[in-house]
C-alpha cells in the first residue's frame, strides 16, 4: 500500500508541481512561491534549489524511465553550467538573480557538495561526460580550497577567502564547522564514487566516516553534535532529530557504496544507535518533532524531517527486519504526511511545517531556496527503490 500510494503521489503531485516551476525564459526553476501560492518569477534562484532539482529529475528519470524527466534534468544542467558556475574563479555561487546574473557570490562548501551530488546523478542519467568532469572539478576544488586536516571549512567569498559561516549557522551560534555540511559532502562523494570509482574519493569517504565516528557522534547522548569550532569541539547542546535519522541511512548507503568490511563494522553500531534514539525520543507514534535545544523540544513538524523519518525508519527495518516497529513508524509518518503535511490546495505541494496536531504555520513559503523536491521527492524514490 505504501509503495502504491507513494508512486501515485510522486507522479501525480510532486513531479507535475516542479515541472510547473520551470523558467522557460531565463533558465532554471523559479525560486519562490509564497504560502498563498503566489509565484514570484523575479525571485532569487538559489543554486542549492536548482542543483537539488537537477538531482531529483535525474534520479526520477533513472527510476521511472520517463523521457520528459530527462528533459527537465537537461534544462537544470544547462542553467547550472551557464549561470551557477563561476567561470572565472571556479565553484558554484550561492544564488542567482532571476535573469541569470550572480546575486550572492558566496562559495559555500555545502553548495559545492550539492552540485557534485546533482552532476554525478545527471551523468548517470544522461551519460554526459561533461557533467562528470564538472563534478570532479568541484571535488578537487573542495579538497584544495575548503578542507583542513580536521574537517571541512564552510564559507568563502568569491575568490575563496574564508568568511563567517552565517548561512549554515543557526540557534544563535556562529559555527566554524557543521555536521550538516560534513553530511552532505559525504552524501555527494558517495554518489560521485558510485559513478566514478575514483580512489581519491573513496579515501575521503573513509576519512569522513572516521570523523563522524570520532568527532561528530556522541555515544553518551546517542546523537550527533551539530555545531563545532574550528577544532571540531561542539559549541551547542542541540539534538537535530531530522539530521540524525537522515545521517543513519546516508551513512549506511555510503558504507554499501564504499564496500569496506572495516567501515561496515565501525559504522553499523552508530547508525543503529541513531535510528533507535530517534525512535525513542523524537517519534510520537505519528510524526517526528524537529529538534531539542538545551533540553527544550521544538515540536514543529517540518516537511523534510518527516520525509527523512520515512526513509530512515524504513532503512532501519530493512537492516534489522526483526525491528518491525520501524516499519510501522515509517508507515505512520507517511499517514501523517498524507493527512497534514501535503497541501491539498490545487497548484501546491507540501507545507513547510505544521504543528504537532498537523495545523500548518501560515506564512511559510511553499518554494524558496531551501524548499524543493530533494527531501520529499527523494523519500518517494527511496520507498519505490526499496520495495
From TrEMBL:
Catalytic activity annotation: D-cellobiose = beta-D-glucosyl-(1->4)-D-mannopyranose
GO biological process: carbohydrate metabolic process
Enzyme kind, highest EC tier: isomerase
Name of a matching Pfam family: GlcNAc_2-epim
Domain of life: Bacteria
Family: Belongs to the N-acylglucosamine 2-epimerase family.
Protein name (database record): Cellobiose 2-epimerase
Amino acid at each position: 500500500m505504501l509503495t502504491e500510494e507513494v508512486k501515485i503521489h510522486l507522479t501525480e503531485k510532486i513531479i507535475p508541481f516542479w515541472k510547473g516551476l520551470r523558467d522557460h525564459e531565463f533558465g532554471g526553476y523559479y525560486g519562490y512561491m509564497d504560502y498563498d501560492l503566489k509565484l514570484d518569477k523575479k525571485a532569487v534562484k538559489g543554486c542549492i534549489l536548482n542543483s537539488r532539482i537537477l538531482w531529483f529529475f535525474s534520479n526520477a528519470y533513472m527510476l521511472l524511465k520517463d523521457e520528459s524527466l530527462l528533459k527537465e534534468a537537461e534544462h537544470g544542467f544547462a542553467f547550472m553550467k551557464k549561470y551557477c558556475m563561476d567561470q572565472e574563479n571556479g565553484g558554484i555561487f550561492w544564488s542567482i538573480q532571476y535573469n541569470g546574473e550572480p546575486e550572492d557570490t558566496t562559495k559555500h562548501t555545502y553548495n559545492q557538495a550539492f552540485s557534485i551530488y546533482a552532476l554525478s546523478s545527471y551523468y548517470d542519467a544522461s551519460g554526459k561526460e561533461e557533467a562528470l568532469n564538472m563534478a570532479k572539478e568541484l571535488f578537487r576544488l573542495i579538497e584544495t580550497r575548503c578542507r583542513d586536516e580536521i574537517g571541512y571549512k564552510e564559507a568563502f567569498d568569491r575568490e575563496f577567502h574564508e568568511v563567517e559561516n552565517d548561512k549554515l549557522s543557526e540557534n544563535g551560534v556562529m559555527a566554524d564547522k557543521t555536521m550538516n555540511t560534513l553530511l552532505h559532502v559525504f552524501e555527494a562523494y558517495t554518489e560521485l564514487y558510485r559513478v566514478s570509482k575514483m580512489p581519491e574519493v573513496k579515501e575521503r569517504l573513509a576519512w569522513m566516516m572516521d570523523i563522524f565516528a570520532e568527532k561528530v557522534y556522541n555515544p553518551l547522548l546517542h546523537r550527533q553534535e551539530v555545531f563545532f569550532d574550528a577544532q571540531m569541539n561542539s559549541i551547542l547542546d542541540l539534538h537535530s532529530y531530522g539530521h540524525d535519522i537522515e545521517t543513519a541511512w546516508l551513512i549506511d548507503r555510503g558504507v554499501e557504496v564504499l564496500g569496506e568490511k572495516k567501515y561496515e563494522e565501525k559504522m553499523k553500531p552508530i547508525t543503529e544507535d541513531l535510528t533507535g534514539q530517534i525512535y525513542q525520543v523524537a517519534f510520537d507514534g505519528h510524526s517526528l518533532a524537529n529538534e531539542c535545544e538545551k533540553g527544550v523540544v521544538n515540536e514543529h513538524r517540518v516537511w523534510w524531517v518527516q520525509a527523512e523519518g520515512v526513509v530512515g525508519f524504513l532503512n532501519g527495518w530493512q537492516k534489522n527486519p526483526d525491528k518491525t516497529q520501524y516499519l510501522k513508524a515509517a508507515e505512520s509518518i507517511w499517514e501523517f504526511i498524507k493527512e497534514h503535511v501535503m497541501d491539498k490546495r490545487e497548484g501546491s505541494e507540501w507545507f513547510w511545517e505544521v504543528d504537532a496536531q498537523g495545523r500548518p504555520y501560515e506564512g511559510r513559503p511553499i518554494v524558496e531556496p531551501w524548499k524543493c523536491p530533494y527531501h520529499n521527492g527523494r523519500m518517494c524514490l527511496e520507498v519505490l527503490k526499496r520495495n
